[in-house]
Amino acid sequence: MSTTWRDGRHPVSVGHLVMGIALLGLVAVWAVVQSDAVSGDDVRWLLPVPWVLAGVAGLLATTLAPMRRGRSAAEPAPEPTPEPAAEQTTERLED
């Protein structure tokens, strides 16, 4: 993934995105349980929801980001062109 900003947008860190969504989802589940909106049996299906949503967000970020840049997800990013090297001298220094 490129570390340079293009068109005012920075590259997405998929790991940070996934863990941020998972953390927010777990906090939301905690808030719902603390407010007694769900009973003990309903928590079984509620706890995996943040992980599933975070996984879906990660998959979307991984597959859609390259498409927005104009290339497919399977196509690797182009290699940066190297800077021209300074002229090298071929003369030998004599002692």
Written account of the structure:
- There is one protein chain.
- The protein has 95 residues and is mostly helical.
- The radius of gyration is 24 Å and the shape is rod-shaped.
- The termini are far apart.
Count of separate DSSP helical elements: 3
**Global mean pLDDT:** 78
Query: Which structural class is indicated by helix and strand composition?
Result: mainly alpha
Number of strands: 0
List SSEs in N-to-C order. HHH
Specify the biggest β-sheet: none
- Uncertain regions spanning at least 5 consecutive residues: none
Global Rg: 24 Å
Q: Cα distance, first to last residue? A: 49 Å
What share of residues is helical? 40-55%
Strand % is under 5%
Query: What would you call the shape?
Result: rod-shaped
Brief characterization of the structure:
The protein is mainly α and 95 residues long. The chain has three helices and no strands.
Question: How are the SSEs placed, and which strands pair?
Answer:
Elements: H1 14-34, H2 43-46, H3 49-68
Keywords:
95 residues; mainly alpha
